[in-house]
Amino acid sequence: MTRVAYAGAPVGAYASERNLPAWRAIELPDSLSDEIVAPVFVKGVTAYMLLTRIASVGRGTTILVHGAAGGLGQLLTRWARHLDAAVIGTVGSEAKATAAREAGAQHVVVGRDAAFAREMAGLTGGRRGVDAAYDASVA
Predict the structure, then answer these.
(1) Is 49 within a domain?
(2) CATH code of 129's domain
(3) Distances, alpha carbon 128 to alpha carbons 65, 82, 115, in Å
(4) pLDDT one-digit tens code per residue, 90-129
(5) 115 located within any domain
(6) What span, in angstroms and rounded, lies between the C-alpha atoms of 20 and 8?
């Protein structure tokens, strides 16, 4: 038997067997436990929706990711960079800033007491702002 993950129809999360189109199934390696796959898969679906359905992110766009060092924040940052977008991340500490930078954030604002408005204005050319902002700290 092959372990797979999928999202969307047909619904039935508690089924032990399921018929669905092959293109919807993502084969899972045996080395990954269900406890690891489930939250990462859901975060991946969330990131996909945010970067493609909520706002079309790609070359020439700048996004802001609050909580850029967390699970969803790092995934959003990596995926947006893969799409050639510019990423500004916010984090609560220098240690988290390192994680956000390693995920691909070009600019990182550190600390809850940072002069956030001034930082954003400086990073985006004055009044331009960002094209989309995501709060991954609550995910």
Answers:
(1) yes
(2) 3.40.50.720
(3) 17, 23, 17
(4) 999 999 999 999 999 999 999 877 777 777 778 777 767 8
(5) yes
(6) 10
Which range marks the domain in which residue 86 is found? 33-138
List the Cα angle 106/70/105 in 5-degree steps. 5
Q: How many domains does the chain have?
A: 1
Backbone angles phi, psi at 57, to 5 degrees: -100, 135
Q: Which amino acid is at 64?
A: L
- Residue 23 sits at φ, ψ, to 5 deg, of -65, -20
User: pLDDT tens-digit profile of 24-72?
Assistant: 889 999 999 999 998 888 999 999 999 999 999 999 999 999 999 999 9
Cβ atoms of 89 and 68 closer than 8 Å: yes
Whether residue 60 lies inside any domain: the answer is: yes
Q: How many CB atoms lie within 10 A of CB 48?
A: 13
User: 17 in a domain, yes or no?
Assistant: no
Q: What are phi and psi of 82, to 5 degrees?
A: -60, -35
Q: Strand 86-91 to strand 62-66: parallel, antiparallel, or no bridges (unpaired)?
A: parallel
